[in-house]
Amino acid sequence: MSFRQRIVALVCLVTLLVMGGAFVGVGRLFVSSQLQHLDEALLSLAREEATHLASTGFTFSPEPGLDVDDTGPLLKHGAVYDDHGNVIALIHFDAVPPPSTSFASSKLGKPFDFELRGELLRGVVIAIPAHPSKRLLMAVTLKDMQGDEALIRRAMGLAVLVAVIWVGALVSYIVGRYTRGHRAIAEVARRVSDGDLSVRVGHVHQDPEVRPVAADIDHMVERLEVLVSSQQQFIAHAAHELRSPLTALYGELQLALRRPRTADEYREALQESLDSARRLRDLAESLLALARVGGGPVGTANRIELGPLVAHVIAQVTAAFEPGRVVFENHVGEGETIGRESDIERLFRNLLENASRHTPKGGRVRVRSHADDTFIYLTVSDEGAGVKIEDQDRIFEPFYRAPTTRAVIQDGAGLGLAISKEIVRVHRGELLLVSGETGDLPGACFRVSLPTAVAVERRSMI
Ligand SMILES: Nc1ncnc2c1ncn2[C@@H]1O[C@H](COP(=O)(O)OP(=O)(O)O)[C@@H](O)[C@H]1O
Ligand SMILES: [Mg+2]
After folding, report:
1. 134 closest CA partner among 85, 76, 97, 78
2. What is the tally of structural domains in the chain?
3. Of 62, 171, 207, 427, which has the fewest Cβ atoms less than 10 A away?
4. Do 227 and 354 reside in the same domain of the chain?
5. Is residue 411 included in any domain, yes or no?
6. How far apart are CA 302 and CA 354, in angstroms?
């Protein structure tokens, strides 16, 4: 049973009990007051009639009966009993059988109900003045009163029924109105769980209590949609990037096996295959790194002295390139941060490799640092062509390579800066492409800001 149905059932039941109870009470009151009037009228008629009978030798008066009915006076039924309880006069008791003698001994002046030939009557017995041993029974039918009572009961029953239906419909409408926001939210949640991320609760006709929840839900679904679509894009890109070296590898091996070759030719084919395999391995490693870094803090954070770390990375990069490729200038001063060393190393390797690759042979790559209370700023600048304005927003996106560099420098899958940005983000820092300030070289200039070890400890930032 839904919340709405439960509320409607409860309110209808309460209405039924309250109104039914009230109407039964009112009905009883009405009937008893009617009866009281009737009794008074009956008693006064009996007294008049008794006086008349005493003076006329027990002949009933021709006057009509009680005037308590809308349709005219009630027929008066009368009987006079003698000392022995025999009927000595009758009016309108077409006495077959005659009213029982036992009525003669009824309590004087006390109205009572009795049934005669299937009809309910109300009567009263009184003594006849000047004939104390004679009794007069005066009675009138209760048929009309019973009719009135039944009519009232029917009318009240109908009123209760209408009230219950009306209250039920009203409550159902009100509860429906107040819960439609929740229903809309539930519907959105259901459709989202079914995979439809285009649904929104929306802002129409919402109650103030529901509106902020609906806005939060919509915001959440929007974020989810963006996330899912960027993940799908990412997977498509990754598959695309994996396909090129795989296709190359496949082609080279197939070609080598097509006919017998000399040892040199095999060596050459193996070398090319090795290049493709290396590209595949690098790509897999980069993808893993991105997934691991983006997945949140893993491993322990240590205090890292950045000067020696940068010197170590410069040595690695120098060894990886042919001798004299670029000249590194290391101006990194003292400065410590707290983080995962392997990640910070990867960050600087990415930046220094990029700088080396984009700098013409024999050019310079400069790293320098300065610090304030909270952050250490390290800039990596080079003597390359820099990043074109139209590419500046996109170079941090996974798999993005500027079209010009893609043609010239065919290494890397465009994940380096995305990984670097992610590493800096989880260390509560920032990685930006900046225009080289005085002291930086005129090519591309990337600035890493990392919180100082003191700041990290002060705020427990990592
Ligand atoms: N020092 C730089 N000078 C000029 N362009 C750069 C430099 N570093 C990065 N870029 C641009 O940013 C793109 C993305 O870099 P990155 O994410 O490291 O990918 P990859 O090195 O695999 O190309 C590069 O393709 C290049 O266009
Ligand atoms: Mg790179």
Report:
1. 85
2. 3
3. 62
4. no
5. yes
6. 26
Pick the ligand that lies closest to the CA of residue 418: 1
**Does 21 or 182 have the greater pLDDT score?**
21
Measure the CA–CA gap between 183 and 189, rounded to whole angstroms: 10
pLDDT over 70 (residue 44): yes
Distance 402 CA to ligand 2 centre (A): 11
What tens digit of pLDDT does each residue of 270-305 get?
A: 999 999 999 999 999 999 998 888 776 656 789 999
Whether the Cβ atoms of residue 364 and residue 331 lie closer than 8 Å to each other = no
Spacing, Cα 354 to ligand 1 middle (Å):
6
415 and 449 co-located in one domain = yes
Closest ligand to Cα 402:
1
Question: Rounded to the nearest whole angstrom, what is the distance from the C-alpha of residue 411 to the centroid of ligand 2?
Answer: 8
Max distance between CA atoms of the chain, in angstroms, equals 160
Which chain residues have CB less than 5 Å from ligand 2, an ion?
Answer: 354, 412, 416
417 lines ligand 1 (CB under 6 A): yes
Beta carbons within 8 Å of 333's beta carbon, 6+ residues apart: 307, 369, 370, 371
Which protein residue's CA is at the shortest distance from atom 12 of ligand 1? Answer: 395
Domain annotation covers residue 200: no
342 pLDDT higher than 70: yes
9: domain CATH number is 3.40.1840.10
Ligand nearest to the CA of 392: 1
Q: Is residue 171 part of a domain?
A: no
* Distance of CA 417 from the midpoint of ligand 2 (Å): 6
On the question of pLDDT at 412 being above 90, the answer is no
Ligand nearest to the CA of 357: 1
Cβ–Cβ < 8 Å for 128, 50: yes
Nearest CA to ligand 1 atom 23: 414
- Asked if residue 346 has its Cβ within 6 Å of ligand 1, the reply is no
Sequence letter at residue 208: P
Q: Is the CB of 355 under 6 A from ligand 1?
A: yes
Query: Confidence class of residue 406 from pLDDT cuts 50, 70 and 90?
Result: low
What CATH code is carried by the domain that includes residue 333?
3.30.565.10
Rounded distance between C-alpha atoms, residue 373 and residue 187, angstroms? 51
pLDDT over 90 (residue 221): yes
Mean pLDDT of the chain: 89
Q: Which domain holds residue 225?
A: 211-291
Question: Which neighbouring-strand residues pair with 443?
Answer: none
The CB of 350 under 6 Å from ligand 1? The reply is yes
Q: Helix H segments across 263-401?
A: 263-294, 306-320, 341-358
> Cα–Cα–Cα angle for 281, 426, 436, nearest 5°?
85
> Is residue 443 situated within a structural domain?
yes
If asked whether residues 315 and 440 sit together in one domain, one would say yes
